């Protein structure tokens, strides 16, 4: 009888709430970014709950920390999907962790979507990844934009910092394409192992070839640590980084002077813009108790876009949402406006946006567009 009561109680709780999964490296080399994304995602769901939830049901974020370890990501995702009965995942990060989820087949087997991965790798797009809905362009598109700008400025001799794994190999492949297209000369390809904290050796290797431009193609924390170790005179080379690098964390780690002048590719509009409704929503959220402590940045705006998009799909799925229904809702979004930011997942497309820009870090870690 006690067992039956417990089961009925669990069923009742499950029926009155909608569960969303979050698997990310809350510890490990991307911890700062992952923690901020967790805080943002949980805070937004709590705000929506305070407004009545979705279809009268409370939203619950179910969190797992994979430590940015691909060996753990698929197992934890399977736990959320099959035991916690989530209807979708949101704001994941990393090429290798996402690849492990794709190879496990857990999303395709259970028909549960993942909305928003902080990775632009080609390896996590295409066959086998149909349940993943991307809101950012590929790294190839980001690298091409950076290479095009460097070439336009006459910066032909470059050095590249990359991570020694599948993510990094994908970066090098796309860099080769841009190298040929824009006539760049790669003077040094400097690798680091995931989890590296001391970048003194990598910094010396880069400095030794006197590049005109440096492409920092590592994960956020590695980019921050490299800049902390980098000791060339200011202006010795123009430095560029990928879109998931947060200016404030960069400045906090490396110092404001070293951060200033770095170009960062952007996959969402200026988070300080006053013209786009999505950004107005984002700024309003940050000014509530639910957004307390979250720094406005392109990374947090992207995280906001992802959870906002997933909730739109859950609403479209009706009062009894399932992973399958949410998938159908997402797949039906053709030129869909998320507060004025357009995504398109129709006709089997899973790369929802091609938006790209480059901003430069200015004083007090503010981005200049």
From TrEMBL:
Say which domain of life the source belongs to: Bacteria
Task: Reply yes or no: does the keyword Iron-sulfur apply.
Answer: no
Any Pfam family from its record, for instance, is Peripla_BP_6
What's in the keyword line of the UniProt record? Signal
Protein's UniProt keywords contain Iron-sulfur:
no
> Where's the Leucine-binding protein domain?
17-348
Q: Which family does it belong to?
A: Belongs to the leucine-binding protein family.
| PANTHER family per the UniProt record, alphabetical | BLR6548 PROTEIN
Protein name, UniProt field: ABC transporter substrate-binding protein
Organism, as annotated: Noviherbaspirillum galbum
Upper lineage = Bacteria, Pseudomonadati, Pseudomonadota, Betaproteobacteria, Burkholderiales
């Amino acid at each position: 009888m006690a067992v039956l009561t417990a089961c009925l109680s669990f069923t009742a709780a499950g029926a009155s709430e909608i569960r969303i999964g979050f698997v990310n490296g809350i510890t490990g080399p991307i911890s700062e970014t992952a923690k901020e994304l967790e805080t943002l995602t949980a805070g937004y769901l709590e705000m929506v709950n305070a407004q009545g939830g979705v279809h009268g049901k409370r939203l619950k974020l179910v969190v797992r920390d994979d430590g940015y370890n691909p060996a753990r990501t698929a197992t934890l995702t399977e736990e959320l999907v099959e035991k916690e009965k989530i209807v979708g995942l949101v704001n994941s990060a990393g090429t290798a962790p996402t690849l492990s989820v794709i190879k496990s087949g857990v999303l395709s087997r259970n028909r549960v979507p993942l909305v928003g991965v902080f990775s632009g790798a080609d390896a996590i797009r295409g066959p086998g990844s149909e349940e993943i809905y991307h809101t950012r362009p590929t790294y190839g598109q980001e690298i091409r934009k950076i290479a095009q700008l460097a070439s336009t400025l006459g910066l032909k001799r470059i050095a590249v910092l990359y991570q020694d794994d599948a993510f990094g190999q994908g970066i090098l492949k796309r860099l080769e394409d841009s190298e040929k297209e824009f006539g760049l000369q790669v003077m040094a390809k400097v690798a680091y192992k995931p989890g590296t904290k001391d970048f003194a050796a990598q910094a010396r290797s880069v400095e030794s070839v006197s590049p005109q431009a440096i492409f920092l193609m590592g994960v956020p924390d590695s980019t921050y640590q490299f800049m902390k170790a980098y000791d060339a005179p200011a202006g010795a080379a123009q430095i560029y980084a990928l879109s998931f690098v947060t200016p404030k964390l960069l400045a906090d780690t490396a110092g404001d002077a070293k951060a200033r002048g770095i170009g960062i590719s952007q996959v969402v509009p200026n988070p300080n813009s006053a013209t786009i409704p999505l950004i107005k929503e984002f700024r309003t959220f940050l000014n509530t108790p639910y957004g307390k402590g979250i720094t406005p940045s392109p990374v947090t705006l992207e995280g906001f876009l992802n959870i906002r998009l997933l909730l739109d799909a859950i609403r479209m799925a009706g009062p009894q949402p399932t992973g399958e229904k949410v998938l159908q809702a997402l797949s039906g979004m053709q030129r869909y406006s998320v507060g004025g930011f357009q995504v398109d997942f129709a006709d089997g497309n899973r790369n929802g946006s091609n938006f790209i820009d480059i901003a430069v870090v200015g004083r007090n870690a503010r981005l200049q567009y």
